[in-house]
Amino acid sequence: MYSLSRFLSLAKTLLPIFSLVIWLLCSASHSSSVALSKAPSWMAVIWLFWRERCTQANIWTMRVAFGLLLPLVLVLISENNFIDDLPEESFRNATGLKWVNLDNNRIRKVDRRVLEKLENLIFLYMEKNQLKEVPAFLPPNLEQLRLSRNQISKIPAGVFNKLENLVLLDLHHNKLSDGVFNKNTFKGLKNLMQLNLAHNILRKMPPGVPNAIHQLFLDRNNIEDIPSDYFKEFPNLAFIRLNYNQISDKGLPKNSFNLTNLLVLHLAHNKLTNVPFISSKLEHLYLNNNSIESESRRHVGRPGRGSGR
Fold first, then answer.
1. Of 58, 98, 164, 211, whose CB has the highest number of CB atoms within 10 Å?
2. Which family does it belong to (predicted)?
3. Nearest Cα residue to 299 out of 237, 254, 269
């Protein structure tokens, strides 16, 4: 397993080389295609931070092809770059990639053949881009997929089916509505521990959430009610965030949060007038900015009676 500290240490060692690469990119005024196939084959990391605008280069549509860099394990091309799509030749032959960070770009689409070749990829970060849908043909060994702050309003059918190793899926701050989700949307995510759907346009709780979930983030939506026994199938659920929704007493079944392993519950900024029933094992409860008038010990459940079992 490669650690972030190891990546950063190696990156610092190779900074002079990276600076040369960036200078060459900014000097390529007649080409929008970047091919690094002549770079030394021993390079384990390419770190391209464009903090200054390349005034001599026309790179509004970047083409990144890492032809012969077979040992490459990390690619970070972020911090306000100009990449707007990933064509088929992107990362060509770089089958050893384990970590790709394309945050803070303008990527609108990803060619279906780009990602399916990266069989060893573990981390894929594409936050703050312009994606309209979750990219298809995702690598089967992904453990983290971060797609927050895009314009995603569509999740293709079966896109997660082969991602049994995925533990984190971050889709917060997109344009996901209730119609996007069905009982099979998350099918295949057997080991998912964290699901972040915050700051979308949901009015209902999403169906088909994987049973292994530990952390569920649904804050800043328009959710009005929670179905009876919705959380019953999540024995490991420890952290729920539902603040900034439209949940009222009427939309909250009596034992919704009386869960054995629940430790943290965020319900601030809703429309509650009563404290919900909770397990005595709960450690943190946030109810600020509701309309609660009184509290009562009767709202604390008995130990061992959570999860509706």
1. 98
2. Belongs to the small leucine-rich proteoglycan (SLRP) family. SLRP class II subfamily.
3. 254
Q: Render pLDDT for 286-309 as a digit per residue (tens, 0 to 9).
A: 999 999 986 654 455 544 333 332
Q: What would the two tokens of residue 43 be?
A: 């390079």
Give the model confidence (pLDDT) of 233-279 as tens digits.
Answer: 999 999 999 999 999 999 999 999 999 999 999 999 999 999 999 99
